[in-house]
Amino acid sequence: MKRFKQNKPGSLIGILVVLLLFVPLFNWAQDSINSEDFQSRLLQNIHQQVFEYPWNDAAFFPGKLELANRQTMKRELKEAREYAHNPDAFEVYFSILDHLPAPDKAIFVKSFWFYQPEIKSQLIEAGLSEDLQYLPATLSAFNNEAISSFKRAGAWQLTHFQGVLNSLQINKLIDERLNISKATFAAVQELKKNEALFDHPKKAMLAFVFGKTEIKNLCRRAGGDACSVNELLAVAPKEMTDFMAAYQATAAFLSQNKYIPEQEPQKTAEAKVRLQTHFDQISAVLPISNNELSFLNPQFPYSIVPEQASLTLPENMKQDFLFLQDSIYNGVDSTLFEVVAQKIEYPPAPNRQYVGEQVKDLEIEGKTKIKYTIMSGDVLGFIAEDYDVRVADLKYWNNIYDERKIQAGKTLDIFVDDENADYYRGLQQQTAIKEKQKTVVPDFASATLPGMVIPESSKKVEHIVESGESPYVIAQKYDGVTPEKILEWNSISDARKIQIGQKLIIYVQ
């Protein structure tokens, strides 16, 4: 996805000052939550949008920002504090929001009121509490591109399983968790199921963020399934009570600070794409920029719209798109499709691997163990993504010390939540069908992506990353090697994820 950013020194200084106060990085995730870093993650998500389209465009969603005056805020804050489960933490988080740099505060409030009507409407239609409209603001500050290290993605920070189970498309070219409209539908369905299970909106919300199993276990500790939210939080870990405080502070802040739009948002319409298409092809024919296409279609992170997928356009452009489709498809440039969807693999954990030791017959409370048969071409990153687990866990459960040595035909133990076991048992058959459909030879006539080509004359070498090395620095050490190829050969989607001591595969001519 292409983004064009500008440097704004004043705002950058403000954000750096706050970040210096709250340095560590934060991720809401079922596996692990470092809630002390809420402020850092919040600022990161908000500031990422400050200079991006459309929030940096004054003509987009014009209106008036109405910030609460100090006297009103103080009175309402006192009332809200009385209802907070953790009043002291609530006050800290509210203060963080209230002292955001001016551009960040404006974007945070404006984005909430831009998405709020649709989210509120879907919650009401599903019979859920309207207060849940503040959940995506707490999780991601409405940053569509927010992706946690535990593979939660989008404004609602949905897991892979939550998305797939609620009818979202998630594959190498499409991730509908990044589309707020589609993700809201999936999140509402998941919250509705949780509320039927726990019979309380706040328990349903906590189960959405922390997992059903965690809430069930806490309910048992708190005296049974009928325990109150206060009783549950009394035995909950600090990260959960802090999350609740952050959520309640966000709700109080956004209910006090409003954005009054001067006109309705632009109407949109969907059009089917006959052939695989790149945003560049569309913007070359229609009067619409790549940035606008990306904003309307964030589910295509590589700017590639697969064959038969639905493309969202301004309503007044749909007919032009349908009429000019041939011109759009004929404008193909093979280099547009050289991007290969890549996976982020977690760094190896050698302290948890034991060379030569037999795999233990593990059992995990609340989890069902299923067997996965390794197929030709499998890598742990793909398997982990499909089964919504971490690579590090796959290695630990199966005593794998070198992921490159897994063999087709062997089996892996994978632990999944008890209630989802049937779904995952049937997943391998679906995966096998998809594998048959893979194309590794460039064939633009059939609109498929080219595969990764490695010349037969190349020599394979291992490079161990040293301090200060980036893909560019490493590429300079080998003839004919580019930074892009290093990322491609090692299935790395973000160069910043490379770590000291990591082994990289490089093919030298």
Task: Tell me what the structure shows.
With 509 residues, this protein is mainly α. It folds into 4 domains: 18-260, Lysozyme (Orthogonal Bundle); 268-337, no CATH class; 350-443, LysM domain (Membrane-bound Lytic Murein Transglycosylase D, Chain A), CATH 3.10.350.10; 459-508, Membrane-bound Lytic Murein Transglycosylase D, Chain A. The chain is 43% helix and 9% strand. It is built from 22 helices and 10 strands. The strands form 5 sheets. Strands 1-2 form a two-stranded antiparallel sheet. A two-stranded antiparallel sheet has the order 3-6. The chain has a two-stranded antiparallel ribbon with strand order 4-5. Helix 3 packs antiparallel against helix 12 and helix 5 (102-125) packs across helix 8 (180-198). It starts with 8 loop residues before the first helix and ends with a strand. Mean pLDDT is 78; it is low at 1-35, 339-358 and 434-451.
Q: What topology does this entry show?
A:
Blueprint: H1 9-21, H2 38-50, E1 63-66, H3 70-83, H4 87-98, H5 102-125, H6 135-140, H7 160-165, H8 180-198, H9 201-210, H10 212-221, H11 229-234, H12 238-256, E2 258-261, E3 268-272, E4 277-278, H13 279-283, H14 290-296, E5 304-305, E6 310-314, H15 318-323, H16 325-330, E7 367-373, H17 380-387, H18 391-397, E8 411-417, H19 421-425, H20 427-436, E9 459-464, H21 471-475, H22 483-489, E10 503-508
Antiparallel strand pairs: 1-2, 3-6, 4-5, 7-8, 9-10
